[in-house]
């Protein structure tokens, strides 16, 4: 009986070691895939809301992207510097699909991203080409970003994190109850927790507001008496009464 138990323990230990080794290999494989994906995307950016036509071809799309870069963003880029441009996803509605664009030089991509503000008046925008995981995280960070800006915090998205008043927060941190950045002024700012507030709204509740406790008349009178006694200087008569007591 003892020998069978020892044999079972040995088999369990062997399986646990094999599982640990398999997990390490999977993690290493995942890291390699992420590195390869990052290398592939390093010269990419995505152009959003560019009108899409029914007779659009790869050649006409590249020329249209080049026109946006040169005319709207004032970037002196040659047509041959655009390595590729194509729509993302299948056509499902009348909405224009994003255009993934690859340029030949990394610094050209940074130049395009920095000039993004020039596209606002044309109702266009460019973003970096993030991984699927990073895009999902950024999408989940949007409600927290909006709430942070609504409460007068300087908030931006940096890859898969949110920068609030100079400090980076991950999605897990902003979802936790401990996420409460310090306000920039003396006013009280509510905790950034949109999911909790949404649950309250669904239940017909409102976010509780901090109320000042009313001061009673007795407290006001006692405070006034205390101030008057503090201002009055002690007289020799008070000293005599104190000594007699």
TrEMBL record:
| Protein name (database record) | Uncharacterized protein
Q: Which organism is it from?
A: Rhynocoris fuscipes
Instruction: Locate the region Disordered.
Output: 176-245
Origin: domain of life: Eukaryota
Ranked from the top, the taxonomy reads: Eukaryota, Metazoa, Ecdysozoa, Arthropoda, Hexapoda
Biased composition (Basic and acidic residues) is annotated at 192-202
Which ranges are annotated Polar residues under compositional bias? 177-187, 217-227
């Amino acid at each position: 009986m003892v020998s069978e138990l020892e044999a079972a323990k040995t088999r369990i230990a062997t399986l646990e070691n094999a599982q640990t080794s398999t997990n390490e290999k999977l993690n290493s494989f995942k890291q390699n895939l992420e590195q390869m994906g990052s290398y592939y995307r390093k010269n990419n950016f995505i152009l959003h809301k560019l009108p899409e036509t029914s007779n659009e071809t790869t050649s006409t799309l590249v020329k249209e992207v080049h026109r946006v870069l040169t005319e709207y963003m004032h970037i002196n880029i040659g047509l041959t510097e655009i390595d590729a441009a194509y729509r993302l996803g299948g056509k499902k509605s009348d909405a224009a699909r994003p255009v993934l664009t690859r340029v030949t030089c990394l610094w050209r991509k940074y130049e395009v991203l920095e000039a993004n503000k020039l596209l606002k008046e044309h109702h266009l925008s460019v973003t970096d080409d993030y991984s699927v995981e990073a895009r999902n995280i950024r999408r989940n960070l949007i409600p927290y970003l909006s709430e942070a800006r609504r409460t007068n915090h300087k908030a931006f998205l940096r890859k898969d994190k949110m920068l609030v008043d100079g400090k980076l927060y991950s999605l897990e941190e902003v979802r936790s109850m401990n996420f409460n950045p310090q306000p920039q002024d003396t006013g009280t700012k509510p905790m950034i927790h949109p999911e909790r507030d949404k649950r309250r709204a669904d239940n017909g509740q409102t976010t509780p507001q901090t109320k000042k406790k009313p001061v009673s008349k007795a407290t006001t009178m006692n405070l006034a008496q205390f101030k008057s006694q503090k201002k009055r200087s002690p007289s020799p008569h008070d000293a005599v009464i104190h000594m007699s007591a």
